[in-house]
Write a structure and sequence with these properties.
Strand content: 5-15%
Number of strands: 13
Helix content: 40-55%
Number of helices: 23
Length: 525
Amino acid sequence: MIYRFGVFAYDSDRFELTDTNGAEIPLQPMTKELLYLFLQEGVGQLLTKAVIVDSLWQGRQVSNAALLSQIKTLRAALNDTAKPRQIIATVHAKGWRLIPEVEMVRQQAAVRAPIATVESGEPRSELIGEKPSIAVLPFRIIGDRRSPNASFAEALPDDIISALARLHMLRVIARGTSFQFGNGNIAPSKLRKALSVDYCVSGSIELGGDRLVVAIELSDTRDDSVVWSERFEFDPRAVHEIREHAVGRVVHEVERQIPRNEAERLRISAPKDLTAWQAFHMGSSLLYRRGINNIERAQAYFTRAVSIDPDFARAHAGLSHTYWWLLLQRTLHDPGDAPQLMRQSAEAAVDADPDDPSANLAMGKALSLSTQRDQAPEWLERAIDLSPSYAMGHTQVAAHHAFAGPYEEAMKHGELALALSPRDPMRYSTYAAHAIAQFNLGDIQAAAEWGRRAQSVPHEDLMIMVTALCAVFLAGDKQEAAEIADNIRSIFPTVTISGIERANPFMGDQVRPVVQAILSANGFH
């Protein structure tokens, strides 16, 4: 999308600000994000400090000086330093607003050819970039090597290698190569020199006593930093459960932490032109953040990735996910072309890689919002068959069963998702699935408790909030229900009962009048 304002144009696909002559105006990544936020909000709309901090710093505490520095930097780039301001006005004690009119122009077709191809029409490898590479080392043994569980030090990393390879988002070094490094006691940077890998998984197994202690860490080989670590303690007699649980946690965290780490490195280095893989990582890191602005920014990154590499399955799947979110959260009145674009992106992901778990998940989600809803379960189940440690897949399967049954299956898959990702920032979706399943099982108090858990995790998901509202209202807590209703109105000020119904196609005929009555009792029309 091209945003034209004054003598400037901002290309959200290329992440470039240009002047009237087409010359690029350099901006640091955070300043670009601030400009994009102003352009998305539109002319005259107030941007408060809270909104900017939530979008740029994800709600972290920042000083007024840091925020004002970003405003000052943006004004300088736009040549808006003199008073009265011509582009960004200060609203005393409240925030800032954009002054000039903004014209939005779609130019996806114009951008695609020069970015993605060379004269032969084939994607350029330097623009595609490379998927991250990872090596898993044999774990160090601490304690009696004659213990019956000593073989666990090789068996567990062997399982991790197999599971990581099923993600289709990493170049995984084969066991025969990575296991040459003995007991894994090697600095990550030295491993990078030996194997040219970006990440490594290492760990230790502590044998002896009545507990088996497993310590695992994911490291960045470029600077020897620890990206994620975890310590597990188990009963040695439950060795099979240990393997399944530890492997699942590692796979999930690798899938979540690597894009986030890659995005953070990109924000620091601020490359002028992102490769397809770099754009994918930036988009993936934004999916876990709150707010429609972050989803739209993620959509722009994924669009860039697939414009460079049309066969990038994961990027197509990510793009489909953004349409899913926007369809359920924003297009309450007119879905526009979001359903079609969501389905097209999912189909492109499956065409590019039919064995990618995220591609199958995207297809299942797209079908669940279509007239072919009965085909969705097959795709959702295939996603977790391809990667049993796919927490997001288990969450979506849980959500499907929560509405359609069997409800016990919803609880089972929800528990699996929470075990794989107990601190997942999007776990509110899993909590809501539990709430809906418990409601359908007839346990209203349990449903309300799960609804409260969903609300305890920061989010701006309309249907999750509606689920929590209905659950606590039916449990008899009218005051808490009213507070949730007020929160919904603050985030979605134009929401209506009919809009909520359109945004939730899963709502059955028996449940619909109950939801309508609860929403009406809480001031919705």
